[in-house]
Amino acid sequence: MKYYIIAGEASGDLHGANLMKALYKEDPNANIRFWGGDLMQNVGGTLVKHYRDLAFMGFVEVLFHLRTILNNIKICKKDIVDFQPDVLIFIDYPGFNLRIAKWAKPLGIKTHYYISPQIWAWKESRITEIKHDVDKMFVILPFEKDFYEKKHHFPVEFVGHPLIDAIHNHPAIDASVFRKENQLNEKPIIAILPGSRKQEITKMLSVMLSVVNDFPDYQFVIAGAPSQEFSFYKDFITQENIKFVSNKTYDLLSNATAALVTSGTATLETALFKVPEVVCYKGSWISYQIAKRIITLKYISLVNLIMDEEVVTELIQDDCNSKRIREELKKITEPNYRQNLLGKYELLEQKLGGIGASEKTAKLIVGDLK
């Protein structure tokens, strides 16, 4: 059967890759065409467009790139028509994917959505589009099932969180080997995860690294995104105590003592690796002002949203400054604080439903097509 998958960001590339592996296992003759990244490309199939050409963050930034976005939608529609897939599989990325779903449904193409748009955070009105244009929805957060079924009377499948699979399947690396390969010294590691898009990396790295001199007994290691070249990060590496690894985030988290993490999927990944973290987010002033008025959630990190309490500290906008980062980083390196936090992380993992999300989703998709 023919599968067309659309993932528009680094996290979607990761989940898309694991889903593709499961689809090939379930349907060895699967013909997969996709929008995604290097991880999906390594699995197989045909890459149409890389997510590095698709990811724009913030309201103002999207407006500036509107012509590019509309052109990508046009390219995507034509490619789908030429490919004639048995099913379209959308992975998050709602601004783009819901437009494609609306166009595809009247053409009789099956529309499956894996990893729900976060309409519980903002744009809840999108539920109308989803109910009309999406045939099957597979959700990965425990509270999403109640949100869709009890509040909006739209049946969904809770398949568990694919990050648990990704982390469970990640091969362990010996700490000494990791340090040697990446020219790291013996000091404990503070991981810096500034995001995957140039805009957020530029905004976040300077403030995250502003506290380096306050922690001389640690080395700060930047997790380079697979979509960015080392030359982009080079100007931020201004001291001996700042190191860099590219496309090795999981190896880095496996060996980290603490982490500073830009809000997003990385906050959950860090928690599942049992690394104490401080969540940092700083957007453009206009984008932040707009978001503050339309997003009504108590928290911005997935860890806190799933647990429904402030398990990890969130430093947002004006609070994301050197003084506050210094204070919170000192806290999470203290033994008693760390022990309590790690206990909360164990409860978090239990809530996420165990391993097997990719396999469950692939079985449901193939079963529906058959």
TrEMBL record:
Might you give the EC number(s) for this enzyme? 2.4.1.182
What is this protein called in UniProt? Lipid-A-disaccharide synthase
InterPro entries membership: Glyco_trans_19
Entry function: Condensation of UDP-2,3-diacylglucosamine and 2,3-diacylglucosamine-1-phosphate to form lipid A disaccharide, a precursor of lipid A, a phosphorylated glycolipid that anchors the lipopolysaccharide to the outer membrane of the cell.
Q: Does the keyword Nucleotide-binding apply?
A: no
Q: Which UniProt keywords apply?
A: Glycosyltransferase, Lipid A biosynthesis, Lipid biosynthesis, Lipid metabolism, Transferase
Q: Which organism is it from?
A: Flavobacterium alvei
Cellular component (GO) terms are: membrane
The protein's annotated catalytic reaction(s) are: a lipid X + a UDP-2-N,3-O-bis[(3R)-3-hydroxyacyl]-alpha-D-glucosamine = a lipid A disaccharide + UDP + H(+)
One of the Pfam families matching this protein, by short name: LpxB
For this protein, what is any one GO molecular function term? phospholipid binding
The biological processes this protein is annotated with in GO are: lipid A biosynthetic process
Keyword Lipid biosynthesis attached: yes
